[in-house]
C-alpha cells in the first residue's frame, strides 16, 4: 500500500530506484517506486544497492535512496504448479496459484501463469485493504542457438480505504496511547467540516499494467546484444477530505503511461567485461485533482494543467575486471530528463465551473542533466577475508510538483502581492544529488561471519521547506538543502552450533543539515524521519523440518521537522516466525507451513512520518500496526 515507507541510510524509499530486470518502475504524486505491484512469489531473487548504483540499472526518477532490482522467476523448464493460502489477523486472506508449463516443444517454448487474491480489514477504523487482484504471465522462447526472447506481463488491481494519520499534538506529551486507534469517522454527520473525515471519503483505487521483453542475442563467444523494450500504464484515483473551502473531497487522478527501451552490447574478454548501453523513455503523466462536496456533488477542478510528454535519454558504460585476487569496476551514466511545459487553468464559479486560463500558473519546459560515475574495488586477502571500497554518485530528478502548485493556488493572492507566480517557485526546483562512499570488510569463518561497512555521503539540492523572506506566512519546498551523512552498518552471524545461528544487524546513521535553511535554524539537525540507531537481531534455530526464528527490531528516536522540535520516541518490537518444510510430501511435492507473529507485545509506536502530507500540507504521523498473526500453507508440485 502507498501509506508505507522504509529508509536506506536515512533516505526514504520513494527517493530510490525500483526495477524489474533493470527496467524502472515508478509513478508520480507521490513520486517513486510502486513496490505494491508484485507478488514476491513470482520473483526469483532481489538485489539491493545501498550506495553507488550500477550504471546498467534503469534509474527512472532517481537513485538517491539506493536501488532494488527484482529478478523474475521466469517460466521453468519442468512442469509444475503451486498453491498457497494465508490467513491472519483482521480477516486477512491471500490465495495464490502458479502454473509452469515446462518445455512444450523442440524449440524450447515454455510459459508460466500466476494469480492471487488478497484482502483484509483495516486494523483501526472502518474500511478494508483490498481486494487486491494480481496476475502475472511469463514466456521464454529460444530463437535458434544464439538468441532468446523472454516476455513478462504483470497486472495489479487493488482498492483500499486510507488510514487517518495523526498530528504531532496527538502523539506528543503522552497522547499517543489515547489516540492510537483514532481513524476516520464511521458515519456522515451532514457537516462538511466533519464529513471530510468520513472513511468512505478517504480511499484509493489503483490499477497498473507492466509489460516488457528481454531479448538476448549472442553474436559470438565475445559479444552479446541485449534489448529490453517496455510499456507501463497506471490508472489510479485517490480521494481524500481537505479542509479548504470549508471542507470538501479532493480526488487525485493519476493517468500515467510510459514506454521505453534499454539497449546494450556486452563484451566478455579473458579478464575484462564491458557494457555499453542506452536508455530511452517517453512518459505522459496526466495528474490532476477534482473537487467534490461531501455530499458527492462536483465542485470544479483543483489542480489542472496541460502537460506534454517528458523524455529520458541516458547512455551509459561499465567496465569491470580482475587480476588475481584484485577485482574492480567503473561506470559512467549520463542522465537527461526533458520536462514539458505546462499551461495553467483554474475552475470558475458554480454551477458550470468552467476552466479559466490562468497564465500565472504556467510552468516552462526545462531539461535537467547530470553525470553519474561509479567506481569500486575489492581484494581477497585469503579465503575468509575480503576488503572493498566503492564510490557512486546518485540523484533524483525534480518531484513534488502537485503539492507546490496546490500551495500556490491556495495562497495565490499572497504570492501575487509580493510579485511571485508559480514559475518563480519552480525556478527553485532542480536535481537532488549525493556522493556516496563505502569502505568495508567481509570475514567468513567457521564460527562467525561479519561484514561491517563504513559509509559517508554528501548531499545537496535537497527538497526542503523554506519560509519566504518577503512574507513569513508562506512556507513551501525548494531544492536548497545541503546535508552530510555518515555511519556504519554491520551484519554479524554467530554459528553457535549446527542447529543454531545468532544474527545481529545494528546500523548507525548521522545525517544532518550542513547549514541553516531560509527561515529555520537547521545546521547540525538530523534530517526528518531519520533515526540514528536501528537494529535487528534474533536466533535461527533448526530442528528436523522446523525452523524457529524469534527476533527483535529497534527503531531509534526520530524527528518530524527540520528543526528537530517534533521528536518521536524510540521503539522496541518483538517478532516470531516458525517454518515447517516437508519434501516428498505427496507425489514428490513440497509442503510448507509458516506462522508469523509480529509486534508480539503490542507496542504502540509511530511507523511513518510524512513531511508535507498531501492531505494537510504539514507533517503527519502514522501509527504502526499492533500485534498480528498470519498462518500460511503452501504446496508445490
Describe the protein in words.
It is a single chain. Mean pLDDT is 92; it is low at 613-617. The chain has six helices and 36 strands. The protein starts with 6 loop residues before the first strand and ends with a strand. The chain is globular, with a radius of gyration of 26 Å. The strands form six sheets. It has a 22-stranded antiparallel β-barrel.
User: Low-confidence stretches at least 5 residues in length (pLDDT < 50)?
Assistant: 613-617
Number of helical segments with 4 or more residues? 6
- Helix/strand-derived class? mainly beta
User: Main sheet, how many strands, which sense, barrel?
Assistant: 22 strands, antiparallel, barrel
- Oligomer description: single chain
Radius of gyration: 26 Å
- Strand segment tally: 36
Strand residues, percent: over 45%
Task: Specify the helix fraction band.
Answer: under 10%
Distance between the first and last residues' Cα: 31 Å
Round the mean pLDDT to the nearest integer and report it.
92
> Per the principal axes of the C-alpha atoms, what is the gross shape?
globular
Amino acid at each position: 500500500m502507498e501509506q508505507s515507507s522504509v529508509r536506506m541510510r536515512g533516505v526514504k524509499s520513494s527517493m530510490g530506484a525500483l526495477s524489474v530486470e533493470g527496467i524502472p518502475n515508478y509513478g508520480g504524486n507521490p513520486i517513486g517506486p510502486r513496490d505494491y505491484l508484485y507478488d514476491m512469489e513470482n520473483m526469483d531473487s532481489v538485489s539491493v544497492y545501498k550506495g553507488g548504483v550500477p550504471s546498467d540499472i534503469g534509474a527512472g526518477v532517481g537513485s538517491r535512496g539506493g536501488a532494488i532490482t527484482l529478478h523474475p522467476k521466469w517460466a521453468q523448464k519442468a512442469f509444475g504448479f503451486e498453491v498457497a493460502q494465508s490467513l491472519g489477523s483482521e480477516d486477512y486472506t491471500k490465495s495464490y496459484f502458479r502454473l509452469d508449463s515446462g518445455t512444450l516443444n523442440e524449440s524450447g517454448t515454455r510459459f508460466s501463469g500466476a494469480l492471487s487474491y488478497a484482502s483484509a480489514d483495516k486494523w483501526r477504523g472502518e474500511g478494508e485493504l483490498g481486494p487486491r487482484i494480481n496476475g502475472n504471465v511469463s514466456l521464454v522462447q529460444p530463437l535458434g542457438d544464439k538468441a532468446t526472447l523472454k516476455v513478462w506481463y504483470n497486472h495489479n488491481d487493488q482498492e483500499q480505504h486510507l488510514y487517518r494519520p495523526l498530528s504531532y499534538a496527538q502523539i506528543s506529551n503522552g497522547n499517543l496511547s489515547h489516540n492510537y486507534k483514532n481513524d476516520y469517522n464511521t458515519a456522515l454527520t451532514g457537516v462538511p467540516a466533519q464529513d471530510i473525515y468520513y472513511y468512505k471519503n478517504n480511499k484509493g483505487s489503483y490499477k497498473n499494467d507492466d509489460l516488457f521483453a528481454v531479448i538476448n542475442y549472442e553474436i559470438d563467444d565475445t559479444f552479446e546484444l541485449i534489448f529490453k523494450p517496455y510499456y507501463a500504464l497506471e490508472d489510479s484515483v485517490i480521494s481524500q477530505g481537505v479542509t479548504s473551502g470549508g471542507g470538501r473531497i479532493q480526488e487525485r487522478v493519476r493517468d500515467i503511461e510510459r514506454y521505453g527501451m534499454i539497449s546494450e552490447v556486452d563484451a566478455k574478454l579473458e579478464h575484462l567485461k564491458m557494457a555499453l548501453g542506452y536508455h530511452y523513455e517517453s512518459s505522459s503523466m496526466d495528474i490532476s485533482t477534482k473537487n467534490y462536496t461531501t455530499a458527492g456533488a462536483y465542485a470544479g477542478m483543483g489542480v489542472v494543467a496541460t502537460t506534454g510528454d517528458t523524455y529520458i535519454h541516458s547512455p551509459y558504460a561499465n567496465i569491470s575486471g580482475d587480476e588475481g585476487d584484485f577485482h574492480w569496476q567503473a561506470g559512467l551514466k549520463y542522465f537527461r530528463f526533458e520536462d514539458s511545459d505546462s499551461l495553467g487553468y483554474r475552475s470558475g464559479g458554480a454551477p458550470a465551473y468552467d476552466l479559466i486560463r490562468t497564465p500565472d500558473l504556467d510552468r516552462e519546459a526545462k531539461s535537467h542533466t547530470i553525470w553519474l560515475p561509479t567506481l569500486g574495488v575489492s581484494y581477497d586477502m585469503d579465503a575468509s577475508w575480503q576488503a572493498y571500497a566503492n564510490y557512486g554518485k546518485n540523484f533524483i530528478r525534480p518531484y513534488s510538483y502537485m503539492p507546490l502548485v496546490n500551495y500556490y493556488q491556495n495562497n495565490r493572492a499572497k504570492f501575487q502581492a509580493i510579485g511571485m507566480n508559480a514559475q518563480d517557485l519552480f525556478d527553485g526546483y532542480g536535481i537532488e544529488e549525493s556522493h556516496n562512499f563505502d569502505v568495508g570488510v567481509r570475514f567468513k569463518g567457521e564460527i562467525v561471519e561479519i561484514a561491517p561497512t563504513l559509509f559517508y555521503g554528501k548531499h545537496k539540492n535537497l527538497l526542503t521547506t523554506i519560509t519566504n523572506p518577503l512574507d513569513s506566512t508562506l512556507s513551501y519546498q525548494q531544492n536548497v538543502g545541503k546535508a552530510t551523512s555518515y555511519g556504519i552498518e554491520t551484519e554479524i552471524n554467530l554459528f553457535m552450533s549446527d542447529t543454531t545461528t545468532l544474527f545481529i544487524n545494528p546500523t548507525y546513521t548521522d545525517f544532518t543539515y550542513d547549514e541553516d535553511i531560509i527561515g529555520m535554524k537547521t545546521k547540525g539537525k538530523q534530517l526528518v524521519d531519520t533515526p540514528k540507531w536501528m537494529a535487528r537481531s534474533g536466533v535461527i534455530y533448526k530442528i528436523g523440518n522446523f525452523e524457529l526464528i524469534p527476533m527483535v527490531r529497534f527503531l531509534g528516536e526520530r524527528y518530524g521537522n527540520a528543526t528537530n522540535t517534533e521528536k518521536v520516541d524510540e521503539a522496541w518490537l518483538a517478532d516470531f516466525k516458525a517454518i515447517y518444510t516437508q519434501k516428498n510430501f505427496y507425489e514428490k511435492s513440497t509442503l510448507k507451513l509458516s506462522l508469523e507473529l509480529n509486534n508480539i507485545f503490542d507496542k504502540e509506536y509511530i511507523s511513518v512520518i510524512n513531511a508535507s502530507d498531501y492531505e494537510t500540507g504539514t507533517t503527519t504521523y502514522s501509527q504502526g500496526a499492533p500485534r498480528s498473526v498470519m498462518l500460511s500453507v503452501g504446496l508445490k508440485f
